[in-house]
């Protein structure tokens, strides 16, 4: 009879991913599971040991995607802390992905709007079907937009009473178009 440790330590299948610039990366099936586009490609085609070409992903960005999912894999495999009925705070459940975790926030800091890498990682995450990476990348954009909005309000010394202003905006635009001189 196999123990729990023996069944969990079964060797994982290794896949080869080929970036657009020809560099090949080896990843295990846990990473492939997180990339729905690649997973589907693996299931529908028999590539054998041949690398899976990812024509829209540079080696630099693919390396970052792999780094992200390797960390997530290790993080999510750690035991969760919670109500365990007296087993010292450790349960058998896996941790769930936390897009607001400190590691994730620090990871996203390397991607910026100025150099275009933030939009590039969003495009690549979408292309690969990397849902959790896409989630934190979009949250990063949302945070930046919110920060920019607050800085803009401070610059012009305005407050946020957008509900009243927004509801009156279309009618004020219509009124001004009625007054426009005709030729």
Domain count: 1
Regarding quaternary structure, what we see is single chain
- Order of secondary-structure elements: HEEHHEHEEHHHH
Fraction of residues in helix: 55-70%
Topology:
Blueprint: H1 4-8, E1 14-18, E2 24-28, H2 29-34, H3 36-44, E3 52-53, H4 59-77, E4 79-81, E5 90-94, H5 102-108, H6 117-128, H7 131-156, H8 162-179
Task: Explain what this protein looks like in three dimensions.
Belongs to the SKP1 family. Pathway: Protein modification; protein ubiquitination. It is built from 8 helices and 5 strands; from the N terminus they run H-E-E-H-H-E-H-E-E-H-H-H-H. Helix 6 packs antiparallel against helix 7 (131-156). It has one domain: Potassium Channel Kv1.1, Chain A (2-Layer Sandwich), CATH 3.30.710.10. It is elongated, with a radius of gyration of 24 Å. It has 183 residues and is mainly alpha-helical. It has a 3-stranded mixed beta sheet.
In short, what is this structure?
By secondary structure, this protein is mainly alpha-helical. Helices cover 56% and strands 11% of the residues. It has helices spanning 4-8, 29-34, 36-44, 59-77, 102-108, 117-128, 131-156, 162-179; strands spanning 14-18, 24-28, 52-53, 79-81, 90-94.
Task: List its salient traits.
3-stranded mixed sheet; mainly alpha; 5 strands; 183 residues; 8 helices; Potassium Channel Kv1.1, Chain A; 11% strand; two-stranded antiparallel ribbon; elongated
């Amino acid at each position: 009879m196999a123990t729990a440790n023996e069944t969990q330590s079964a060797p994982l299948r290794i896949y080869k991913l080929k970036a657009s610039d020809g560099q090949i990366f080896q990843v295990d099936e846990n990473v492939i599971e997180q990339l729905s586009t690649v997973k589907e490609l693996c299931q529908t085609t028999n590539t054998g040991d041949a690398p899976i070409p990812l024509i829209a992903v540079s080696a630099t960005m693919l390396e970052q995607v792999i780094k992200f999912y390797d960390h997530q894999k290790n993080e999510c495999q750690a035991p969760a802390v919670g109500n365990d009925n007296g087993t010292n705070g450790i349960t058998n459940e896996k941790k769930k992905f936390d897009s607001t975790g400190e590691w994730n926030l620090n990871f996203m800091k390397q991607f910026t709007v100025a150099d275009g890498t933030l939009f590039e990682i969003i495009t690549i995450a979408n292309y690969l079907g990397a849902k959790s990476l896409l989630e934190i990348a979009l949250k990063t954009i949302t945070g930046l937009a919110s920060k920019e909005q607050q800085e803009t309000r401070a610059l012009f010394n305005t407050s946020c009473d957008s509900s009243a202003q927004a509801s009156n905006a279309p009618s004020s635009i219509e009124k001004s178009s009625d007054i426009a001189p005709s030729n």
